Amino acid sequence: MKIGIFDSGIGGLSVYNELRKTFKNADCIYTCDRKNLPYGTKTDLQLRACSLAMVKRLEHCDVVVAACNSASTMLKQSTKVVTMSGAFKLHIDQYPTDSVLVMGTDATIRSRVYQDMFEERGADVYALACSGLATSVEYEKNKDVDEWAVLVASLVKRYNISDILIGCSHYSFIKERIKVQMDKIDCEAGFIDPAEAVVKEVQKRIDDIGEKKNMFVSFEQIVNKPRVQPQEVEQKVPLTLEWAHANLRN
Fold first, then answer.
1. β-strand partners of 127
2. For the chain, where do the domains classified as CATH 3.40.50.1860 start and end?
3. Is the whole-model pTM more than 0.85?
């Protein structure tokens, strides 16, 4: 069993690690496209091209996970492709909330994919486009990261927000930093991470394998090939942020 996971950079390792906890015997292939990082600032056309190209690269896998929320806004969830937002939509009823702060890239916030889901369920929704945060996490710009954490904590306290939606896989690595800032100003909020829903959807795909074979979406709309060949690593142990910084440098 091969599970392919991709992101623009190291953020998808947070999703990779969740998948490894459940699918210990699977061959997980993690691929990142750092030369095109960040995806969250791309136009829809650029983002679609990058996203479909990465799925194409992993088409030899049994299941492909778009571990990038920005890319997920450009892909249709199918019997073989699992997207962050697509998986979360199927399981959102398991995450009831009165008020939620959606943290995401420019592309994800612009798509309104998460805001619409929560608003349809009557929640008060606050959206924060965290321009540059994914890059700061990628390259360990901790001062910038902490400034974002302070802002998030202040919004939680000001608007009495119940939960924070992690709308970019990179942000999973800074939850503890956000908690520290919330503690400093005596407020708290839960974290909602779509990675949990992704694991459930991958399980469904694996259960279906052998019963039916399905084709991928068409890739004819990709006019140009990716500017670079994405880096690929195969690991059978959890990948840490430290490992990523040591091994995925340009």
1. 102
2. 2-87+196-247, 92-193
3. no
